[in-house]
């Protein structure tokens, strides 16, 4: 039986989350990708708090971008999440790609976050 794309992504995500967990010293950079937007959060799983967040829905990015579902938009979100986390003193994170394959928009966000100073 062939699984739907959504079901495959959900299963991959649950497999990843078994081994990836954020700590106060090294929180988790969680990515969610929809058709039209991309979202990133820095999460401390021990205290269950979101420490920083960024998405293509934010007014400063939305006015600058033609579409939220492109690699360029993902790179901008990566830069923004890195700036926000570095401002809070977070330099090391664990990358959680959210069950998505590491290419395209996910890779663009990760590369931009690394270039902006985030280590993972």
What does this structure look like?
By secondary structure, the chain is α+β, with helices and mostly antiparallel strands. It has one domain (5-115): Nucleotidyltransferase, domain 5 (2-Layer Sandwich), CATH 3.30.420.100. 39% of the residues lie in helices and 19% in strands. It has helices at residues 5-19, 59-62, 71-87, 105-115; strands at 28-33, 38-44, 49-55, 94-96. The protein has a four-stranded mixed beta sheet with strand order 3-2-1-4. The protein is globular and about 45 Å long.
CATH architecture term: 2-Layer Sandwich
The total beta strand count reads 4
What is the N-to-C order of secondary-structure elements (H for helix, E for strand)? HEEEHHEH
Beta-strand percentage range: 15-25%
The first-to-last residue Cα distance is 36 Å
CATH topology: Nucleotidyltransferase, domain 5
Give the mean pLDDT: 96
- Radius of gyration (CA) equals 14 Å
The biggest beta sheet, please?
4 strands, mixed
Helix content: 25-40%
CATH top level is: Alpha Beta
Question: What structural class do you assign from the helix and strand content?
Answer: alpha+beta
């Amino acid at each position: 039986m062939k699984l739907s794309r959504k079901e495959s992504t959900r299963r991959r995500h649950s497999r990843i989350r078994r081994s990836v967990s954020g700590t106060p010293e090294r929180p988790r950079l969680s990515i969610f990708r929809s058709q039209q937007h991309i979202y990133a959060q820095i999460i401390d799983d021990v205290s269950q708090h979101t420490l920083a967040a960024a998405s293509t829905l934010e007014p400063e990015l939305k006015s600058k971008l033609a579409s939220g579902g492109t690699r360029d938009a993902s790179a901008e979100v990566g830069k923004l999440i890195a700036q926000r986390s570095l401002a809070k003193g977070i330099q090391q994170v664990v990358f959680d790609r959210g069950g998505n394959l590491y290419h395209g928009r996910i890779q663009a966000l990760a590369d931009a976050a690394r270039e902006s100073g985030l280590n993972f």
